[in-house]
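Teaching assistant here, posting this on the class forum so everyone can see the example we discussed in section. The complex has four components, and the goal was to see what a joint structure prediction looks like when all of them are supplied at once.
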Amino acid sequence: MNLEQVARRAKVSTATVSRVLNNASVVKNSTRTRVVKAIEELKYYPNLHARSLAGGKSRTIGVIVSNLENPFFFDIYKTIESDAHARGYEVVMANTDYRSEQLVSSIRLMIGRRVAGLACIVSEMAPELIEELEQSRIPVVFYDVGRPRPNITNIRVNYRRGIEKVVDYLHSLGHRKLGFIGHHAILGPINERMKAAMDAVARIPSLEVRAAADADTLEGGRQATRALLASGFAPTALICVNDIMAVGSLRELRERGIGVPRDMSVTGFDNVKLSEFCYPALTTVDIPRERIGHIVCDSLVPRPGKPPAADPEVVIDPELVLRDSTGPAAAREA
Amino acid sequence: MNLEQVARRAKVSTATVSRVLNNASVVKNSTRTRVVKAIEELKYYPNLHARSLAGGKSRTIGVIVSNLENPFFFDIYKTIESDAHARGYEVVMANTDYRSEQLVSSIRLMIGRRVAGLACIVSEMAPELIEELEQSRIPVVFYDVGRPRPNITNIRVNYRRGIEKVVDYLHSLGHRKLGFIGHHAILGPINERMKAAMDAVARIPSLEVRAAADADTLEGGRQATRALLASGFAPTALICVNDIMAVGSLRELRERGIGVPRDMSVTGFDNVKLSEFCYPALTTVDIPRERIGHIVCDSLVPRPGKPPAADPEVVIDPELVLRDSTGPAAAREA
DNA sequence: AGCCTTTCTGCCAGCGCTTACAACATCTTC
DNA sequence: GAAGATGTTGTAAGCGCTGGCAGAAAGGCT
């Protein structure tokens, strides 16, 4: 089933059918009707591969995320998708599960698909990959990694500042021994988030901190909490790298009979919807995921009216959101 | 950057480069080395569109789901993806958000991509779409909709049986007035799940039931619960169409000071990971999502050794999982 | 050395579509 | 009614890759 068959049925040339498909307004109305009819009768759907081969372009944007299971990534993805659709673009998604080989192959796949733009919402990004992407001439957006370059936009959240807000808040509640629950990708040598947390704590001499990490899942949060508590260190507050791990942590604490926030304060990060629905509702840090999604789409898909390129670097300052999972440390002694 | 440039650099023909790329073993080793070197130096990535155009096939399978935000769908997707990768296939995903226009356009898109196989894990599926898919000759798997046909496999969960188990269990606990929390896609005219629930209740004369529905999200579960309680009907147990909505329900109940399971029992469906992590942990019905994912992949991707087609219809009988969100109705009076 | 296999490599015809460019049809205008 | 402007459609040259076929190279024998 191809253009030619439709053309034959409508008694026109393939070029005309193509023109109808691409709604060029040059086609005479009577002809268009005939073609449309043929298309419908034949249930013809253009071969997208042929189309982008011939056209040289692809009206598809690629999105690569670390862990779609975490609603944080999903929320961003969703916004990108709906923006893209609104502008007539498709989006293909790839999930790396924090595995760098997976990242490499996903990026190659996207290049192979000749995507019109690529968003990398991943925590890990080798410099040579950035290099490769820059050379590919594809418009790219990175989240939280890399530096702005030609055809590369950067979005970053001031994670450090966010963690500082959390630490200051816990400190003000009287907490002195803090635990940090991270996820595996975060235990690498140069580890932004973990380091940010350590630094934020180090600013205040009276504080002590210890970290543990596991997979970026509910279960991982639970395991990391278990490991941290088993180490003998006795924190009065747990700073979790994100909300999902915090919910995992909550479960472990509950099973051990450790009351939150009575015996232990817990904080999340991201302000994912679930953080309001878990029990107790999480004190967390809001990252405006929809805003991020919009920025991604804006810098990838050139809008007709709008100015083509926004800032090559966008920095977002996250806000603390207070809920029920944190309280004064003193309560523990009571 | 294309085959020709690589060929020129390696001083061979494009056909030879193509052979190297597709690891045909006929290429002499010394030639292969030269070509590989050229490919790497040029950072060449084959154009996937050209490839599948020329080859006529696409080593890509499509997966369409109703709501990726619900981990139920995501778990299935994830299994399909990893199985597919293991067999050298890519997968492209589309999310319909329960919108039928979105379903239609996603299906057309998949056909346009000439996917090697298509999985539709969606609750809504118009008969004419099924017709269209059958004609497209693409191997298709439906979950919970449609009937087996040539080149169409069907997987269905005996939802009715699952709900019956829930109803019987609640009945045995002394509950007589039940609420059903559904989601919008489920309020259609012929509505399998809602109907199953009503029928399950109708089997037992002493039972009474009332339903409410909202979006398939945490928030939706909360709203539907609010609506149900506002109606004046006073159930002692809430049967939720899935775990996510149940967690939403839990929050509403908590905020109203209604104890679970003391004042109200709540059940979920699916046995998503979150159902263990919420508070209280949910009594639910397990649907083996990994198994479903494997079946999907098996019937879409012809394995070399294995027999090509499995059963055209697979029915899964789900199991009740007891946790902490359900208890005797009598307790309420205490 | 000469002939026959067995490898290996190059040539080229598509795959289905887009897009100049050319060709034809239809109007205008004087 | 002819020339020119305008509108509409057809022709054909690719887009980058694969795969069948045939020719070239290399190796094995007598």
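For the discussion questions: The mean pLDDT of chain A is 91. Residues 71-86 of chain A form the longest helix (16 residues). Think about how each of these relates to the inputs above.
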